[in-house]
Each structure stands twice: as C-alpha cells, then as structure tokens.
Design brief:
By secondary structure, the protein is an alpha/beta fold. It has a single domain, classed as Rossmann fold (3-Layer(aba) Sandwich). The protein has ten helices and eleven strands. The strands form three sheets. The chain has a six-stranded parallel β-sheet with strand order 3-2-5-6-10-11, sandwiched between helices.
Length: about 280
C-alpha cells in the first residue's frame, strides 16, 4: 500500500512539473504587451508634473476625477534633469501608449510637453495648467522674467552635486519660507508642510536649456490661468496661451500655482473641453 501511494505521489508531482514547464514556455514565447493600451472610446490622458513636485502629489485628485469619467490616465515621473533629458524620456512614454492622447503639463511640465509632443500623430491636444509654453529658441529663465510677479527665483536654494563624469551640477529646491507663498498659497499649511518636505528638486539647467520644438504650433492647445500664481505670473500664462492661439482658456480666480491640487475640478473640465474640441 505504501509503494502504491508513493508511486501516485511521484506521478502527480511529475504532472505538476510538466504543467509548470508548459506555462513557463508559453510565457517566454509570448510577445511583450504595450505598457499602456486602451481600446475604449476615450483618449488616454497623460499628466506631466513640474519642478518641486511628483506625479502623485500633483495629480491625485485630477486622476480620480478623470478615471471616474472613464478616461485612461497615465501620470509618468518627470525626471526633472533638464529639457534634453526630460523631453526624450517623455517621448518614449508617449510611444508606449496606443490610441489618441491628450497631453497635459503643469509648470515646467508645460515646457517638457512642448518639446516632446512633436512627431506623434496620436497626440490630439495639449493642455497647459499654469504652465510654461516656450517657443523655439526660448529659455525658461528669460521667459519667467517677461512679466513681474514671480517669487520663484528669490526662493531658490541651489545644492551642487557631482555628475558621473566629474562635472558639477546644481539642483534647485524651494526654501521653507517661500514654498507656500510661491507655490501653493491657497492650500492648507498642513498640506504644504508635507509638500515642502517631499519636494523633488530639478536641475538648474532647466532655466537655461533652449527649447528646440514648439508642438503648440501644430497641435491644438488649451490653457488654464491661475490668477494668483506667484511662480509663473498669470500675465505670462495669458500671453503664452494667446501666442499659442489656444482654442480655449480658463482662469481660476484666487488660485495659486498648485491649481491642479486646489481646483482639480477646473483641470478636469479643461481636459474634457480639449477632448470634445478635438473629436
């Protein structure tokens, strides 16, 4: 009896091993699936954050609203290493998405999408949220001083670091006494304290990198103005959207630079407008 039981156990184990090998062989031979893919009726919304921020803190409430509305959403991590690095990186993410795309950028993220969106026929609309919208040949360090009102440069804390090749780079942080007033004055202090502690620095080169592409010249755009923006002056935002011949603009009264956090419903509506405007 013991021999029969042992023999049955060996047969069962052999069958299990054969099945596992078949699964592994099937997995190994399967073609890799696209990272992001939707066959639904709505475009994928790609949300690109700016400096001092990350994808989750910037876009959480907007993502929830868009997903509730049936939109597939991707919020990639912007490397914040300067346009020559960040724009090609975003291009690679966009190429992984099948079907139509609405591409939105906040702050420095607006410069990244401006440089990254060209030559991708899937991108149907650009949505700028309190953003930089540079033209070819422009630098953000010059653009931000076109109109008065920004507190960003006065609030910067530069931190040098060593690059792999031995050269020195500089990361930019916002000082504690300027973070809330310059970046998020309409949010509770308990929230901005957390945002300050978790801020992601971006390269000082971001202010001196030259814009090489201006996707808004060929792709329809929409723009949101934060009326009390102390990072990118509201006057600059209005100028940029007018220059880009934006099909639609929205101004949120009393909103700080972090308008996507304080007024996610406004961002949701502008993205919906862009969707309807490009169908």
């Amino acid at each position: 009896m013991r021999k029969k039981t042992l023999r049955r156990g060996m047969i069962a184990a052999g069958a299990t091993a054969t099945a596992a090998a078949a699964v592994l062989a099937s997995t190994a031979s399967a073609a890799p699936a696209p990272l992001h893919h939707t066959d639904g009726p709505k475009p994928t919304v790609v949300l690109v954050h700016g400096g001092f921020a990350d994808a989750s803190a910037s876009w959480n409430d907007v993502i929830k609203r868009l997903q509730r509305d049936g939109y597939p959403v991707v919020a990639p991590a912007n490397p914040l290493r300067g346009l020559p690095t960040d724009a090609p990186y975003l291009k690679s993410v966009l190429k992984s998405i099948k079907g139509p795309i609405i591409l939105a950028g906040h702050s420095y993220g607006g410069a990244v999408i401006t440089n990254a969106a060209t030559d991708n026929p899937n991108i149907k609309a650009l949505v700028y949220i309190a953003a930089f919208v540079p033209d070819k040949g422009e630098k953000l360090g010059e653009l931000i001083n076109k109109f008065p009102g920004s507190e960003i440069e006065a609030g910067l804390s530069p931190v040098p670091y060593t690059n792999p090749d031995g050269t020195t780079g500089t990361d930019l942080y916002l000082k504690a006494d300027k973070f809330r007033s310059a970046f998020a004055a309409d949010l509770p202090e308990r929230d901005t304290d957390i945002m300050f502690a978790a801020q992601r620095p971006f390269s000082a080169n971001s202010f001196t990198d030259v814009t090489t592409e201006a996707a808004w010249r060929t792709i329809p755009s929409w723009g949101l103005v934060a009326s009390e923006d102390k990072a990118i002056p509201a006057a600059l935002e209005r100028f940029e959207y007018q220059r880009a011949k934006a099909r639609g603009t929205m101004e949120v009264r009393g909103a700080s630079h972090s308008v996507m956090i304080s007024h996610p419903e406004a961002v949701e509506k502008l993205i919906q407008d862009a969707d309807r405007g490009t169908r």
